[in-house]
Design a protein that fits this description.
about 350 residues, mainly alpha, Farnesyl Diphosphate Synthase, 2 domains, 2 strands
Amino acid sequence: MLKESDLRSHLRKVSRSFYITLVILPREIFKPISIAYLLARIADTVADTLLQVSFKNKRDFLIGFKKQIQNENLDENFLKDLNKFLFELKKYPIQRDLIRFIPDLFSFYVSLNETERFHVKSITVRLITGIENDLDKFESINSSGVIAIDSFDEFDSYTYNAAGCVGEFWTEISLKNNPNISFLNYQKMMLLGIQFGKALQITNIIRDIRSDFDIGRCYIPNQLLNIYHLKPQDLIQEKLSMSAKKLIRNVMLINLESYLHAIEYFLLIPRMNFRLRLACLIPILIGIKTIKQISLNQDSLTNMSVKISRTSVYMIVINSFWIVISRRLPKSYLYSIIDEVRLILNR
């Protein structure tokens, strides 16, 4: 008999900061959101971290995995393919442990009620389709160089398919039937939720410039690189040029604008929904803190994926608690930290 603790154990392993957000969620929505997250995380792990597994094997696995989610069932052929795939992952013990969890995760998935399964299926199929498209773009061509996405439109589409759509899912599953939210505010939050998700994804793009480069990917579009007369490799030089710093600075300013939408989303959540407000505030503060850390030393992007310290994350959780229970602090405080980062970027 599977227990919720099994779900929590895998969540804790795959994401330090998002795990905190998930466990804070109201109990009635913890399970569907956690299951959707782990299903998507498995697909993302297959596409992005298994560097010695062939493009074809990864692509075939993702197609089969998505089909199982759509059918709400693991068939015998997929289970055989899963065992073969796991055998191929002997050099990837962490990823193997997560992928081996698929049968148990499906037991949780099919235990959801019909409405929850519909929402989880819809979002994970969309996310996996986006991951497949990513894989096709970056790995279907045998290239020893780095491939960048082409245009602003492709950048917008990528951030929506990777995270903006998650904001819609989150809003629908957590707030659609909330009697304390007017229909007008709900519709507004559906749109703000997209920008919320995009804000978090743009932070990931900035933070992971180096690690994405190392696997042959650049999510800063060529259209923007060309404006500054740059190539993807110019963004990972040990000492960034003034042009590279200007580009990254402007992407961070765009990111801050998206966080204003995320803050507006948070402020629209009714005060009596304490846990939901807290679960939404923590990733906002982690994201803004990450951008602040990068803004203080842009050259740090060239060596590694930038992450804030565990101590900083814990401090954010504590501060978030006081912000959520305060009647006057949230709005002024949240806008002030955006202004603080803007000042750093504009000096």
